[in-house]
Amino acid sequence: MTELGVLHSPGPRVRARQRRRRRRRREAALAAVLALGVLLVFMSATATGPRLTPARAIARHRAKPSTYATALARTQVNVKLKLPLTSGMLFDVRSGRVLWQRDPDQPLPIASLTKMMTALVVVAHAKPSEHVLITPAAVHFSGSGMGVLPVRKWALLLTLLYGLMLPSGNDAAIALAQHVAGSEGKFVAMMNARAGAMKLGCTHFASPSGIVDQDNYSCAVDLAVLAHAVLKQPLLATIVASRSAVMPLPVKTGKVWLYNNNPLLRLGYPGADGVKTGYTSVAGTCLVATARRGRRWLGVVLIHSGDIYDQAVQLLNAGFAAPND
Q: Which residues are catalytic?
């Protein structure tokens, strides 16, 4: 009779096979763990990249190509401004090298300096010979303006460009925006798209005139880039360098007399050739101005300035007196 519950121990061959199976399982498990570790290390390196030491970070920063109005010139001018200035820059127009700066990346309201972008968008999408309908919205403007636009009449686009950039006409800005895009809102979207294409990182527009301070801002670096773009456009370069202009307009006299707000042009600063003024109570007095002397062509940006004429003259004089490197 057989006893229940009694187990027979395996023979030598069975025990050997069991040991081989256990060994293979351990090896497979170890291989899986190693493979998982390699995968995790690879994923971590791919996601975060190699850790940069301070020295490597500085080297990488210096290796990046400089862009317009961000590279410092070897010769820096030392200017002590007597009156307040929130942000500003003195730069070489051709190269973009910066000779002097104060908080150049600070986004600030820019008032009618906005019209530099307005003009660029207009000339990119319309011809100077076109005629623009003067709508009631253009006539019922606020702030600075041409002030003589005849409602529901057709005005030459070129006349409105002069009115936009010389007396800083908000009425001209509205009329041009409606002509190019159908509405001010659509035109502002075009302005912001152009700013994105130009990589103006601290710039946003809220109106074609700049009369709206909220959400309408830029910085000295971006404004220098905008000024350079305006001066590269032949028609706009001619307009902003004009002290005054007499242009055709469908009014009784058939003409309109326009005068530039730029104090450097009005007061005859030697070589002055642009670009734009601006003012609101929030933005303060603003100026982007350029001047040539011999082979040198310098520009200045002033945002919320205590005196745009004196500060521009002081900076430009110092820049022209500095060695040209």
A: 112, 115, 168
